[in-house]
Amino acid sequence: MDEQRVRARGGGPPQWWGHGPRWRERRAGEGLPGADSGVGRWLWRSTVLLTVFVLAGSKFAADQQGGDRAHLDLFARLLLVAGSGLLLWRQRHPVLVAFGTATAAMVYLGAGYPYGPVFLTVALGCFSAVVAGHRKAAWTAVGMLWAGHVLIAHWLYRWLPPSGDQSASWGQEIVVAAWVAAIVAVSELARVRREQWDRERAERAQATRRRADEERLRIARELHDVLAHSISVINVQAGVGLALLDSDPEQARSALTTIKAASKEALGEVRQVLDTLRTPGDAPRAPAPGLDRLSELVEQAAGAGLTVEVRGAAPKLSPGTDLAAFRIVQEALTNVVRHSGSRHARVRVDEADGALRLCVDDDGSATGAEAGGSGNGLAGMRERAAALGGTIEAGPRADGGFRVLAVLPLRGKVWNR
């Protein structure tokens, strides 16, 4: 994403550098506004320039070969224009263009007209066919032209203009065959390079989609973890407030106060997540939560009627590990509030074998109450742990109750110096 923003602002190397010429990018953008018109203008301009070059080059060749070849008349010029004009359709109908240009060149040579840049149209037509993936058709068209030239130069010349023409030398055929081989080789090289560009483009698109998916999952986890705990507290306290509104107004007031504090905390964290979307790449306005805010989780859980006992202390952690550990404990306590009949939970934090171990236990049986849960809490915890190379174990204990055990490696631990 950052790389795309840099390129959008004009920074870094141009997009075509190392990834193919701009006309390939335009072809990849077919269907975008203005893409077809841009490609069409490029085809027209290149074809007109090539036609002018072929006509001028053939006129020059006719002047040089005037005594040996037929005069360049109107029919010859029509053949040259037809062969060049076919190149307008070299992207939409490459096979037709390859055979059409080869046929026009064969008729041109069979009529005894002078050698010249007429072969250039055949080369470009077959080049386009090979690059488009029609290799056999292009080879067949080139082979047809070469075979036709052999027949004309060594057998049919007796009955074809110009009169008095002599058989061509086989050395000339070797030169023609070398040109044919060069055309095929260059076309195959361009085809291979195009396939490489397509693979690179597909890999870049896949990497972009993967980064977008990862970012979307990260934001979804953050919003889920931020909201789930606070809304569970609000849900519990709202029920308490409604139940005690008439019989114990002071207790109801306390429940409303807890709701206000929990909602304010949730709004602050949601705003922090959204700020990272509005100003990507900038430093967050507030530090990400970590295990140093474990006491806040205990207070929030107490507001929901859950007593939490904390044992142990965490070492200094990297920001990513610290945030993941905080969210895992937060989600585990949220699940106790939502789904457990116990009003007491234990959180144990320790370090062993180069890993941070987080254990959250409660002794209650499942109540079956959902409390508005989405069912994604455990999946989110596992994703966070897996992203750091850790593991999550969650399930009933043999002696009753429920346990969540997270093991996070400390390779990214930050030591105090």
What do you see in this structure?
- With 417 residues, the chain is of the alpha+beta class.
- The chain is 61% helix and 9% strand.
- The protein has twelve helices and five strands.
- The chain has a five-stranded mixed β-sheet with strand order 1-2-3-5-4.
- α4 packs antiparallel against α5 and α7 packs antiparallel against α8.
Q: Strands, helices and their partners?
A:
Blueprint lengths: L1 H7 L13 H7 L6 H30 L9 H12 L8 H17 L7 H14 L3 H20 L15 H75 L4 H30 L15 H10 L3 E5 L7 H21 L4 E9 L2 E8 L14 H11 L3 E6 L5 E8 L8
Parallel strand pairs: 1-2
Antiparallel strand pairs: 2-3, 3-5, 4-5
Helix pairs in contact: 3-4, 4-5, 5-6, 5-7, 6-7, 6-8, 7-8, 8-9, 8-11, 11-12
Q: Can you summarize this structure?
A:
The protein is an alpha+beta fold. It has helices at residues 2-8, 22-28, 35-64, 74-85, 94-110, 118-131, 135-154, 170-244, 249-278, 294-303, 319-339, 377-387; strands at residues 307-311, 344-352, 355-362, 391-396, 402-409.
Observed structural traits:
single chain; about 425 residues; alpha+beta; five-stranded mixed beta sheet; 12 helices; 5 strands
